[in-house]
Amino acid sequence: MPAVVGAPAGPGLINRSHDLFKIVMRVPDEISDAEARGIINAMPPDIADTLEAVLAPRVRYASIVFLKMLGQWLVNAKEAKASGKKVILVPFNFVPEFVHAFENAVPITSEFLTTVAGNATQGKGHRYWDEAMGLGIPDHLCSASTIELGSMLGRDDLEADAIISCTAGACDANAKIHEFVANYLGIPQFIVEKPVDDSERGIEAYKKSFFRMVDQVQEFVGEEIKEERLRKVIEYCNRAAELHYQIWELKKNIPCPVPNLYNMWIYGTRFTMWGRPEAVRTMQVLADDSRKKLESGEYPAPEELARCGWLYTGYYIDFGGFYNWMEEQGYSYLFDVLDLFFPEPISTENKQVMLEGMCEAARTFTMTRQMGAESMSVAWIEDAIHMAKEMNTNCGIYCGHHACKQTWSVISIVQKELMDRIGAPTLALQGDAWLSGVTPMSSLQADIDEFIRNVVVKKKKSKEKKIRSRGGAK
Ligand code: SF4
Q1: Atom 4, ligand 1: which residue's CA is nearest?
Q2: Whole-structure pTM over 0.90, yes or no?
Q3: All domains of the chain, ordered by start, with CATH?
Q4: Which numbered atom of ligand 1 lies nearest the CA of 170?
């Protein structure tokens, strides 16, 4: 399909990111401060800002391992076409390991490509967003998918051969833009629908929809998934899940030894290479490095002032100004909703059992389990309260992503429940998680700072005073 008539010529988001990551893949795992500085100085300003954050000495080694894994993911997608493999586009609430189970198909993930472009290309994702708007796509759609899909529609870019849509029933904004792209490019879309029914009946209906998609994709790729290959993929998933829970436990320590940025690296791994050996290696490095920080007592601020649970997404527009800045103030970022995918070990007994395990992972995946639940507010509150208790969170922050009308509709209920049930106040921000032009990072920082210093810290101090006056009893 040719690019849209009248669209400016020039490389698209995947092609540009791929070129940059080819360079990243040549960087050794361990580099000195001087080498890191040399790389940063050679880059245009937006990319240099990102590198400044991810190559900060305390996160450098793990970040390089993660970025190389992402590079491999992009290379796999680019090379797939040349070798006759199918490129399957999936949204971030789908299990990429399903596509990794094919020899002749590779997955790319819309929202993660947008995140990569927003940080690894000069000009961030804005030009692709503007092009999507130029096509008449309404601006109330989600920038998470629209930026990447705008590039696919309007540029000389890698085009997917098919789309698996897993957001029907969980997010209309997401489902609609994927449907539009499938129609526009004339490629098939395989839909897995989540009924708003979490009873046995709803689970059965989801399973039917998932297995229908399995048959359709097998027919489209022209390959039946082989049991041995599937087993390998599941074994890698299970090992990555074990490492995920090791990091989870480490986060419970005060101060949190897991750097804020690693939240992003964990779910970036989950959304791209889960089921591959590269994902296991990345998760191992993240776990080992966090454990090392716990043992050495390394924490970037003199004191951990706030243990924050981000109730929906974070902001993916400025890693340094967001993740690193927060932890330098003593504000730990313990989780956001994208971390809440709770992987269960999957039995490798036979092909059917393994696919059923994948199906259940998809049904309970992040976003689907909250926004596609029988009651969106109840499922969201349950997850938020559970996590807040597990992690000893003393505040919630809602990013107020502008496209997320559904979460805006219930955030006040979530806010009230968090306060009533665990005494954690919640800050509701306003800003687009993927577009830096909507609310600048400096405004977000000012709001977070004011909230933590004037509400969270004061509350914490008065609680400590009460405990002391009762002679230490809680
Ligand atoms: S961030 Fe909100 S609008 Fe975007 S895909 Fe997720 S639920 Fe939908």
Answers
A1: 142
A2: yes
A3: 13-227 (3.40.50.11890)
A4: 7
